TrEMBL record:
Protein name according to UniProt: ABC transporter permease
Gene label: msmF_1
Transmembrane segments: 12-39, 81-104, 116-136, 200-222, 254-274, 309-331
Compartments (UniProt record): Cell membrane
Gene Ontology BP annotations: transmembrane transport
Membrane topology term: Multi-pass membrane protein
Pfam families recorded: BPD_transp_1
Residue span, ABC transmembrane type-1 domain: 77-327
Keyword annotations from UniProtKB, A to Z: Cell membrane, Membrane, Transmembrane, Transmembrane helix, Transport
One annotated Gene Ontology cellular component of this protein: plasma membrane
Family according to the record: Belongs to the binding-protein-dependent transport system permease family.
InterPro entries registered for this protein in UniProt: ABC_transporter_permease, MetI-like, MetI-like_sf
Length: 335
């Protein structure tokens, strides 16, 4: 291939320079500055130049030194891990299902349904959070509907219940305390607490997140479905392939790039959840809805520990990269 040189190369760099400068100023420079701050002892209330070097102390507070900070960080990781495992599969499955529905040729009013399903995604997350607070209140719609369906009156305080779902299931079969094998600790949190499952309060936040994000991913799947060549579907139909065979042998394989995009964005978004937690629970009850993003806010703006907050951000970045890499390997092996 011929190389671009001379005036052509200069013109190309001139045209690219606004984007490069924008990325450098608003992305690369802030990331580099945050990484530097993570190795400093800075309260955020004084000039950054007056901060003191902290070495790896901020990371040690989170990962190695036994303290309340490490315990809170462990709780935030546990909560967010259950959040990811619950929200990402749910929103991906529902988005794909809705995309299949609104892509059906026989469906009347497809434009209306596409708009209706997408509408929650463009609504203010804080406004939706306050609506869900009323829905999940003791006298809210959720308890009213459950009371009408189930025997007895349901007066569950959803957003103030710290019991883990797995602990509740075990309690129902008579297991009230941790077995001997689960009495050890990891990062100042017992294995029994690690395996508690999402709390009732966190489950309410997960339902809200699934409802508000499904519409966006539905549009992505819809775009992928509309890019499937009709010629392949018709050829397979002529060859005698059933609708089920066409779906699993043609449609799904061609949607793998879209599936990778949806899963990647879903993982990134769920590990950054903040606004719903801030509006609905503020990390409670008993820190069972505390997430790394909310912990960053608390450490940086409430506890004046900006260095530790930056360290949390970079630990979460590594976690996101690991999840994305594993997901990429899994999807690649299935090709």
């Amino acid at each position: 291939m011929s190389r671009i040189h001379g005036r052509q190369g200069l013109a190309g760099w001139l045209f690219m320079s606004p984007a490069i400068i924008g990325l450098g100023v608003f992305m690369v420079a802030p990331i580099a500055l945050a990484l530097w701050v993570s190795f400093r002892d800075w309260s955020g209330l004084t000039p950054l130049g007056a901060s003191e070097p902290a070495g790896a102390a901020n990371y040690a507070d989170l990962l190695t030194d036994s303290s309340v900070v490490r315990g809170d960080f462990a709780k935030s990781l546990r909560n967010n891990l259950y959040y990811v495992l619950g929200v990402v599969p749910a929103q991906t499955f529902l988005a794909f299902l809705l995309a299949l529905v609104v892509n059906a040729r026989l469906l009347k009013g497809r434009t209306f349904f596409r708009t209706a399903f997408y509408f929650p995604s463009v609504t203010s997350s804080i406004a939706v959070a306050f609506i869900f607070i009323f829905l999940f209140s003791p006298t809210g719609v959720v308890n009213t509907v459950l009371s009408a369906v189930l025997p007895g009156k349901v007066d569950l305080v959803w957003l103030d219940d710290s019991d883990g779902l797995l602990h509740l299931l075990l309690r129902a079969v008579g297991v009230d305390a941790a077995p001997g094998a689960l009495r050890g600790e990891f990062m100042d949190l017992s294995w029994w607490d690690w395996l508690s499952g999402p709390s009732v309060a966190l489950s309410s936040v997960m339902i809200l997140a699934t409802w508000t994000t499904t519409g966006t991913f539905m549009l992505m799947f819809l775009a992928g479905l509309q890019n499937v060549p009709e010629e392949l579907e018709e050829a397979a139909s002529i060859d005698g392939a059933s609708p089920r065979q066409r779906f699993f042998r043609i449609t799904l394989p061609l949607l793998k790039p879209t599936l990778f995009l949806v899963l990647t964005l879903g993982i990134i978004g769920t590990w950054q959840v903040f606004d719903q937690v801030y509006a609905m629970t503020s990390g409670g009850p008993q820190k069972t809805t505390l997430t790394p993003a909310y912990l960053i806010y608390r450490e940086g703006f409430q506890n004046s520990a900006m260095g530790r907050a930056a360290a949390i951000a970079f630990v979460v970045l590594v976690i996101i990269l690991v999840f994305t890499g594993v997901q990429r390997l899994v999807l690649r092996k299935e090709r």
